Amino acid sequence: MMKIVLDAMGGDFAPKVNVDGAIDALREFDDIEVVLVGPQELIEKTIGEYADQAAYAGVKDRLQVVNATQVITTEEHPVMALRRKKDSTFNVGMDIVRRKEAQAFVSAGSTGAVMAGSMFKIGRIKGIDRPALAAPLPIPGRTMLLVDAGANTDCKPEWINQFAMMGSIYMKRVMGVENPEVGLVNIGVEAAKGNEQAQQAHALMSAQNVYTFIGNVEARDTMAGLCDVLAADGFIGNVVLKNTEGVISALFKLLKQGLLSNTKGKIAALLAKDTFKSLKQSFNSEEVGGVPLLGADGAVIKAHGNSNARAIFCALRQARTVVATGVVEEIRAGVAQLAAAKEEA
């Protein structure tokens, strides 16, 4: 039986949405157990308020509550808070994974605390310098994974090479892409383009044979479907991610304004209603659930801070898939292959 730890106090609407999402996941998947970490009295009270108590009764033997009296907020410095708040949901929950009593950790709380806790509590896979956030981007014809999406703002070229390898493994194992193609975000397609970091990363990525590297990808082509994995340092990756979200939001608003500005547009909007609904759903972050933190010695999923119960359910579903497909074990093998390729170069 797979065991997943859920930070019951993470996110804007905790603990209700976390409790509801956990019970919903247990009802859907009979091969998982969920450990809710948070103030025990509050969590048990919230469980008692679940809408379908008869359904809860059927899964309650797979739901465990572990007491943690402290909560780390997004306003706190993550490393200092982890040191100061020994009984926080992060410390207590990640210790369970570190002791190998559970295989995954899910939280909608502080991104910094998820990153720091994964580094210092759960630990990194041996040979991985820094874990990286892997954010899926829906683009025409395929889903692309952006790694790193913001966990590491200052990176060495070797780290970016590792990000690319981990992203390739995730796309193959979790998303079912047989031979993922990897691109490097840069200001031009030529190998000599970009700053020293980008040029050195390109050289390392070109020399390895662990994943398929297609070369540089310019910012204007990040949504063109040129590759399955887009590798970048966390600063550039986060800019790409936020810019993409902003452009998509602006386009939807412009389309709505244009179509509703006259009678012909309103008729066209009515006829295309199902198409627009389907398109909007493809960008629905709820169904993604969260982004994996690749490189931690255990499955770690960071859910969005404004997650609802459905998003928490999907984050738990994603954690289940990461564990079941052996992503962590495959990354371990990938590290050894990258090291061997470096020695041969």
Helix content: 40-55%
Query: Can you identify the CATH class of the largest domain?
Result: Alpha Beta
* CATH H level, superfamily name of the largest domain: Isopropylmalate Dehydrogenase
Q: Which structural category do the helix and sheet elements fall into?
A: alpha/beta
How much strand?
15-25%
Average pLDDT metric? 90
The structural domain count equals: 2
Tell me the number of strands. Answer: 11
Strand order of the largest sheet: 3-2-1-4-11-10-5-6-9-7-8
The number of helices is 14
**Which fold does the CATH topology of the largest domain refer to?**
Isopropylmalate Dehydrogenase
Order of helices and strands: EHEHHEHHEHEEHEHEEHHHHEEHH
Give me the Rg, rounded. Answer: 21 Å
Annotated CATH architecture of the largest domain: 3-Layer(aba) Sandwich
List keywords for this structure.
Isopropylmalate Dehydrogenase; 11-stranded mixed beta sheet; 2 domains; single chain; globular; 14 helices; alpha/beta; 345 residues
List the helices and strands and how they pair.
Elements: E1 2-7, H1 16-28, E2 32-38, H2 40-48, H3 53-57, E3 63-67, H4 78-84, H5 89-98, E4 104-107, H6 111-122, E5 132-139, E6 142-147, H7 157-173, E7 181-186, H8 196-207, E8 212-218, E9 229-231, H9 234-259, H10 263-271, H11 273-282, H12 285-288, E10 290-294, E11 299-303, H13 309-324, H14 327-344
Parallel strand pairs: 1-2, 1-4, 2-3, 4-11, 6-9, 7-8, 7-9
Antiparallel strand pairs: 5-6, 5-10, 10-11
Helix pairs in contact: 1-13, 4-6, 5-6, 7-8, 7-14
Please explain how this structure is put together.
By secondary structure, this protein is of the alpha/beta class. It folds into two domains: 1-128 and 295-325, Isopropylmalate Dehydrogenase (3-Layer(aba) Sandwich); 133-284, Isopropylmalate Dehydrogenase, CATH 3.40.718. The chain has helices spanning 16-28, 40-48, 53-57, 78-84, 89-98, 111-122, 157-173, 196-207, 234-259, 263-271, 273-282, 285-288, 309-324, 327-344; strands at 2-7, 32-38, 63-67, 104-107, 132-139, 142-147, 181-186, 212-218, 229-231, 290-294, 299-303. Strand 1, helix 1 (16-28) and strand 2 form a beta-alpha-beta unit. It is globular and about 60 Å long. The N and C termini lie far apart (43 Å).
